[in-house]
Amino acid sequence: MYGELVLVALIVIGLIGRSSIITTAACILLIIKLTHLDRYLPAIERRGIELGLLFLTLAVLVPFASGRVQPKDLVAAFTGWTGWVALAGGAIGAFLNSRGLDTLRADPQLIVGIVLGSIAGVLLLRGIPVGPLMAAGISAMLIKLVQLFMDK
Question: Which of 17, 37, 18 is nearest to 28 (CA)?
């Protein structure tokens, strides 16, 4: 019963905050719970991030597949400083994502703060909750920084 109440609360929060992603996700999970398909929740938890990343990557790669990005565009991307910054950003992002995954495996209760922080970011900062791994990676980095300063 508690899980259903949390999902209903997330639906309401998503509606108030105009976050269709949170609202839809909570609705899908509520339907799964109410239709007694709970046995699929561990599989969704285990493979959901991979599927989400797959679809996100598909969406990002569409311009390549559709031909909107040409070889000259690739060359142009790395002749200016912004292309190199984007390359560094992608590498740093991938690194932080790996640290986020390690952190969530080692300390799974952090997901509560990450989810609540993502909701707050959507509602208060008009953010988009597409990166729980990135949020976990940033959390891991901030935890390390706080530990570094607390030890001194």
Answer: 37
Residue 35 has a pLDDT of 96
DSSP labels for 69-113? S-HHHHHHHTTSHHHHHHHHHHHHHHHHHHHHHHHHHH-TTHHHH
Look at residue 41 in the predicted model and tell me its pLDDT.
93
The two three-digit tokens of residue 125, written as one number: 């900062």
DSSP result, 4-32 = HHHHHHHHHHHHHTT-HHHHHHHHHHHHH
What is the reported pTM?
0.66
Residue 97 vs residues 16, 23, 38, 47, 137: alpha-carbon distances, Å = 29, 25, 28, 16, 5
pLDDT number for residue 118: 81
Residues, the chain: 152
pLDDT reported for residue 105: 81
Q: Are the C-beta atoms of residues 3 and 33 closer than 8 Å to each other?
A: yes
Give the residues of the chain that fall short of pLDDT 50. Answer: none
